[in-house]
Design a protein that fits this description.
By secondary structure, this protein is mainly alpha-helical. The chain has one domain: Up-down Bundle (Four Helix Bundle (Hemerythrin (Met), subunit A)), CATH 1.20.120. The chain has ten helices and no strands. Helix 9 packs antiparallel against helix 10. The longest helix has 34 residues. The mean pLDDT is 90.
């Protein structure tokens, strides 16, 4: 009988198939094939890493974990759009990407934690999946916002730096201690960053909205990067103490 990881993986791949068919019908066979390849590879990469994390913690995936991992569908859609070559924020592709981002960053992100606590399904593995799903979606959203959302390329710096700093920190301290006891300002910084990416990729909005995005980018992106560096430095100080 297939295990939870296999069942969830099949379900997520099936959920990624529908957007691929939509892209094929609207933008042609070539764009649809590229989208399907990009989204499928992104999903398989995610689930491979999930399998590694589950084996290391000797834990089994729950229904709530499946909801958390469904954020990977949103990330896969964004990656697929990037690979497809379609750059149409106001068209069907834009609505598909923006809708996926709203689901992953708002609906799913705000529900999986409370549901896990309500049903008593919190776990170390669940916390890891939640954090890494957020980070992966943030990187996909940043790349999308810079590619077809009109944001400058430097807005991708903080999401990329997060992974570089994590790899550097893992040489000295365990993963669980890197993000332990984050300061109160860390979450608002992350929310502001994702709000910027969501606004930039929105397939609607008047000139005032676009102006607000352009004005916010030089403030939000550098602050988030500085925040990442401060968190990295703080984790090293905690270990030293």
């Amino acid at each position: 009988m297939p295990g939870p990881l296999a069942v969830i993986t099949v379900g997520l791949l099936a959920a990624s198939a529908a957007p691929a068919l939509v892209m094929r019908r609207r933008y042609g066979r070539r764009a649809g094939a590229r989208f399907a390849a990009g989204s499928m590879l992104a999903m398989l990469a995610q689930q491979s890493l999930v399998g590694v994390a589950a084996s290391r913690t000797n834990a089994s995936l729950s229904a709530v974990d499946a909801m958390t991992l469904s954020r990977g569908v949103a990330s896969a859609v964004l990656v697929g759009l990037l690979v497809s070559g379609v750059r149409c924020r106001n068209g069907l592709a834009g609505w598909l990407g923006w809708g996926s981002l709203v689901y992953g960053s708002i609906v799913c992100d705000w529900l999986d934690g409370p549901i896990a606590r309500r049903v008593g399904a919190t776990s170390e593995l669940g916390a890891v999946l939640d954090l890494e799903s957020d980070s992966w979606l943030t990187l996909a959203a940043a790349s999308s916002a810079a590619t077809w959302g009109g944001l400058p390329g430097y807005c991708v710096a903080a999401p990329l730096a997060r992974y570089a700093l994590m790899v550097a920190a893992l040489r000295r301290i365990p993963y669980a201690r890197i993000y332990a006891d984050e300061p109160p300002w860390a979450r608002p910084f992350g929310i502001a960053q994702m709000a910027l990416f969501t606004a930039a990729t929105a397939p609607f909005g008047a000139a005032a909205t676009r102006l607000a995005v352009r004005l916010a980018a030089p403030l939000v992106a550098p602050l988030q990067l500085v925040g990442m560096l401060l968190l990295h430095r703080r984790s090293h100080r905690t270990v030293a103490a």
